[in-house]
Structure formats: C-alpha cells, structure tokens
Amino acid sequence: MSETSPEAGPITGAIDWEDPSSLPVGVVRDLFLTLAKALRSYQLYDRDNPVYKRFVENLRDAFRRIWETRDQLQVLVEEDRFVWMGEEVYREETRSGSLAFLLYRDGVRDLTFRRGVEDEELDILLDVLHRVRSARQEEDDLVTLLWDLNLDHLGYSAVDLLPEGTLLRAPDDPDPSEVDIREILEGELGEDAPGEEDFARAVTDATALDDLRAIRTEDFNPTLYALDERERSYLEDQYRKEMRRDTRTDVLNALFDRLEDREYARKREEEILAAIQQLLPTFLAQGSLRHAARLLNELEKVRKRPQALSEEGFASAEKLMEEFSSPESVRELVQAVEAGTVDDDGESLALLLRHLKPRALGPLLARAEAVSRPEARQLIQRAIRKLAEGEEERLARFLSHSDDGVVAGAVRLMGALRHRPAVPTLVRLLEEGSPSILEAVLDAARRIPTTAMAEAVERCLVRENRDLRIGAARVLAEIQYTPAVASLRNLLEDRDMREADITEKLAFFQAFADLAGEDAIGLLARILNHRGFLGRREPPEMRACAALALGRVGAARAIQEVERARGDDEPVVRTAVKRVLAGQQEEDRG
Description:
By secondary structure, the chain is mainly alpha-helical.
C-alpha cells in the first residue's frame, strides 16, 4: 500500500470520542449524501446553472459543519460503503451509482478531507470524480489523476491493483522457476509420458507443440449456434423496436405509477419526487419539451388529487413548480428555443408554459422581445398568447412596467388577444412610449382597429420619428381607415414630402392610393405628368412613387396616366412605369 496522506490529527471540541453515542455520525452521513448529490448534479447541469450551484453550496455547508468539531476527516473506503470511527456513514447497493465503489475500484482505501477543501479544491474534486466515472478503460484512473493534481486539502491511501486474472501463489507453493515440468508429466502420464528427446523436441518445435493442444477451433461446430432466417428476422425486428422505444416516456410512466400507488409511495415518495426533480431540468437542457410538459402535467394531476401526496411531498412538488417559474429557468428555456435545439411539435411549448406561475409572465414577455430569430420569437409569442388567455386583467398590469421589453411584449399580447379595454392605455403609449414600445403599439393597432386607436395612429403621420411615420401610414392602409385620406393628401402636396427619403415617400403614396382608390388618380396623375410654370416637373422620386401608386389603384384611367410617362427622360421614372405596365400585362394574361 502506498501512503499519500498523514494520520488524522487531534480532534477538537467537547465531543467524547470514546463514547460512540456522542459522535456526530449524522453530520458525517449528511456530508457524503450531499457529496453524492453534488456529483450527480455535476453530471446533469452546466456550471452556471442555479440548481448545480445550490447543490455545491449545500456541500460546502456540510463541510463547514464538520469543521466545527475537527480540522480533518478521514474515512475508510470499502467496496460498497464508507466507514468513519467504526460507523457506516455511506452505503449504496448498486455499483453504478455508488461513490464508494468508484473509489474502491481504482484502489483508494481511505480518504482524508482537510479544512479548506470546500473553498479551494471542491470544484476540482467533483471534476475528477466525474471524469473517472465516465472514463474509458484506457484513460487514467482516479489514483493517477489525484497524484498529478497533488491537492493540498485532500489525502488518500491506495493499493496497487494486479491485472485481472492474475493468480497469487500460496506461501507453501513451490517457486514456478524451480518446477520441473517433465516430472509433472511423468507423474500424470506414467509410461505414456514423452521421453527426454521427445520432450525437448516438443518444447522447441512449434509444430509439435501445436499437436499437443488440448482445445482446437476445429472441435467446435459453428452451425450448432447459428440462427435460421426466421429467428434472425425476429431479433432484428425486436432490436429496431427497442431502439425506437421512447424510454423517457416509459420512465415517467413508471415514476408516476409508483407515486400513485399509495402503499408503495409511502415508503419511497421522497425518492420518487427527487428523481422527478432531477428529470425536469435534464429534459429542458436537452430540449425535450414534450417530455418536460408531460412531467409537469402529470405532477399537476397528482397535486390536485386529494391525499395523493403527504404534506412533505406536496411541498416538494410545489417547490419544483416554483423553481420552474424562476427567471433563470425562463431564460434558459427561451435560449433553448432561440437556438433551435428543442423538439417542439407546435403544442409542447404552449403546454409547458401553462404550468408557469403568474410571476413568470413578466420575464417571459421580456425574453421573448429579445429573441432575434423570427421563427423562435413567433413560436414563443404563440405560446405566451395561450398562456395569457383569460388573464387579460393581470396582463394589463404589465403595460405600466418599468422594463420597456416587458411593456412591448404585453402590448403585442394585448393586440393578439384583441383586448379592446386596453385601447386607452395603448393610445397613451403611442404618444409617450419608447421606439420599441411604439413598434409594438402599431402592431397591436392592426388587430384592434377601433376609431380611437386609428385616430391616434393618424396623428403619428406628422411625428418626428421617421420609422413611426412610415409604420403609421402602413397601418392606416392595412386597417382601411379612410378618414386619413385628407391627411395623406395634404402631406403629399406639402413641400416637406420632397425632402423625405424614398422609403417614406413610397409608404405615403401607397397608403393614399389604397385608401382613396380612384379618387387618388387626379393628384397622382398631376404629380406624375403635370408640368408647371416654365415646364418644371416634380422631382423624379416623387414622380416614380406616383407611378407605382397609380399601378396600385389599377383602374383603366390610372393605367392610361402611367402610359403617358412611358418615354420619360428620368431613369427612375421609366423603371417605375415599366414595373407597373409589366404587372398590368401579367394581370391581363391571368
């Protein structure tokens, strides 16, 4: 045995170490249970995950409770348990999940923790144990890794393990180097034993040695173990079924079946709920929204069933639902949807979000507004809409939130729900809100086409914000608010319109054409073809926009006015005219 840690130091405190009943065995047991849980969380969560951080902080607290009575803790490592001061402090029956067997397998026979390990080397220890648990056979074992790290606050003793299959010689067995093989053969075979010449030839001649083999491959008939075609087909079919089987659903079914069995659950309820608590973040991290939604749905059914859970079990289930609604969980869920790593089938996300607590709606609205990928944003917004159905009053409170992202999300949701009572607030936001909120209000105005809302949008045609003016013109055309024709006509005739960029000009001309119809032809034709004093015309961009607007009107008289400008001197005007006439020809052929 190679010793790598000193003997345990003197124990401090008022504990009588000669009296087993006074030893803090429970504190030590808690330490190793917490260590095992922290190691499992290390395997399941990212290092920044709040669940993982909570497990690690619990482990640090467990170490600090140990240091209240002494400066170091030394335990013996056995195959299936840890022993301290003659008392068992950890046991795990199954080797696959046993922390004790993980150390014992690699030769560690005792382990010493020293004060300070929780502050300086805890993350390193968890990383090493995780690497060893998932290591391949050819990779370094635990003893090698610990030797390389040379940790100051962790000691251990280890034994050298012999290769598997090595036979050890008993004390009274002869030395193999002194054994005469020929004497053994004479004792076993008697007169049939080979002579000296035959024996020497057998030792040196490879062919003779091959003849003396007791087992040969020819002695086996492989056809005895072959499968016929029917058996092979059956096995292949079973294999394909097994590979396609939804094991996650099977696991959930098994857990909730046992939780609903009250006789069984009375003994294992805490263990089952702990497994469910670990599965939820695992499903979310893997993007398996369907299974996460099913888990929460089944858990909600159990919570609502009378006396289905004990008071402790109900509190544990309630805590899980609260953690799912935390801002951190919402953020991770939205990030997974935005990254496209989820298996959403169109309903799973909505079903999942239905289990959020009301306090999660604000963070969810804010995160949805920050999503850059349009498909992901639409998916989240559809799910939020289903979540908010019937909750309009609660949603209205977010319209006065301090976070512009939350306000914008709530405004879009009000528009999607066509919630008319929110119009006065939306009108106020259209006059006072930030640019991101104004965009959301215009989007909501398309879905709530009330007179008050339309009048507020019309007033935006003369606002200083260029994007707001363009958006307002497009919204008015979309909701067919014809009273805005007079305002649009005045703006097109105003000299300031000539200073606007092409995008704004085109938005106003198209809105005017859509709302005024054939009544717009007079003004549009004058802008396109009229010559003023001394033959002066409108600027080329104004005339090009007028040609495109006449094309939107589409009446015969409007197309005639466009035909008049076919040979115009300005390239931008000729291009607009060609586009309109080509579109008209395509429409005539259709």
